[in-house]
Amino acid sequence: MLPMSTTVLSDVLLIEVPDAGLSALLAERLGKRWKITVDSERPDVVAVLVELRPIEQDLALLMREVSRWVEQEALGAVRFELDGRAYVLEAGEVDWTTDIADDSGANGVVERGRLLKALDTVDRAILQHRERRSPRIEGLETLRQDIIFALRLNDESS
Question: Quick one: pLDDT at residue 9?
């Protein structure tokens, strides 16, 4: 008799996104087909959790969609977790010009601009989610509050 596997099987794929605004974009894109939860509790990344559907090839469809998004956003790669194991999905080229912070002392201004852009993206995703009236994306309101808190901290340190 073979020993039982200790592999943890899950119906949820976790995708790590390096930016709150990008996580809202991904949630908005995937929320048209899958149930999504956005979790901003991890340090340095926002987790987009995707509930897999019990249909054939669902994981393949999801990974193709995420791959297209990674390429479109010029991220180069994202880390994801499935069944208790971590993987990296690579797609396209990295656009290094989009996230360059200068050393001229304007980092607070750059950070504020990045946060405001993220807030705008999250607000748009919340609005579109409400218009669809489907409970597919959870956690956007919490993400919004986290961005507002970060903006306040940024303003206080300026």
Answer: 65
